[in-house]
Amino acid sequence: MLYIVIPxxxxxxxxxxxxxxxxxxxNRNFEVVIVDDGSTDGTSDMIKTQFPETHVLYGDGxxxxxxxxxxxIKFSLERGASSVMTLNNDVIAxxxxxxxxxxxxxxxxxxxxxxxxxxxxxxxxxxxxxRLNWRRNKSIKxxxxxxxxxxxxxxxxxxxxxxxxxxxxxxxxxxxxFAQDKFPHYFADYDYTxxxxxxxxKVYCNYDARLxxxxxxSGDFQNRKRKTVKNYYNHLFxxxxxxxxxxxxxxxxxxxxxxxxxxxLLNGYVRRVFGYLIK
Length: 279
Hints:
Elements lengths: L1 E7 L3 H12 L6 E8 L5 H8 L4 E5 L4 H15 L4 E5 L3 E3 L3 H11 L4 E8 L5 E3 L2 E4 L4 E4 H4 L8 E3 L7 E5 H7 L12 H11 L4 E11 L5 H7 L3 H9 L7 H11 L5 H18 L1
Parallel strand pairs: 1-2, 1-4, 2-3, 6-12
Antiparallel strand pairs: 4-11, 5-12, 6-7, 8-9, 10-12
């Protein structure tokens, strides 16, 4: 049985839309676990009333993304989950999303699978995975190199975000949970999938399974939207900062081949420090 773990903090309208999209799935062979980390907008009451079949776990507001996901994963494993999917609440799953994820997972039972992301407004693909050149610290976006007619099936990637990531139980049993002490919020998903590859598991983007996303809702986008000294600091050091230098350094030492670490770090620091000002 697949268990879907969704960490939430407020934004109950996003959560409602996400759960409604899961109710419409062509394959309903899954359970949903919501980890509500201290919402104050009535999120849990809404879920109990409108989605009573959903499991709801509670945090005190200090879990952030990674510890919330880990709580949901532990709960799922205790109930006998054969695989776990991490899913963000600000996504809408197309009706055949679960069907397409399970279909490919059955063919590649030892692999981690992510889904293609589409912009919820334009319906255009915006993310289909990356392949990282460690030596140059350069990521190749697969959507830029795969012809449109070939944008289907599985394509191997270097790592993947956790907004729709299917993880087989055997992977969790071998490499453990997400590194919540090192990456409380950002980078935990990239680190986990990178660690999985280091341990010999494949990571793919499933181009047949699609999620509608809201890229403007990310914490780092908000930091970039209005450029101030405070937001610049948050970008580089804040919990929701996509350019967080501490997280980037930890990620490098855990995942980058040792010979390439100095150049990888230097290149990454320059991009993060100056990229905020340029973009």
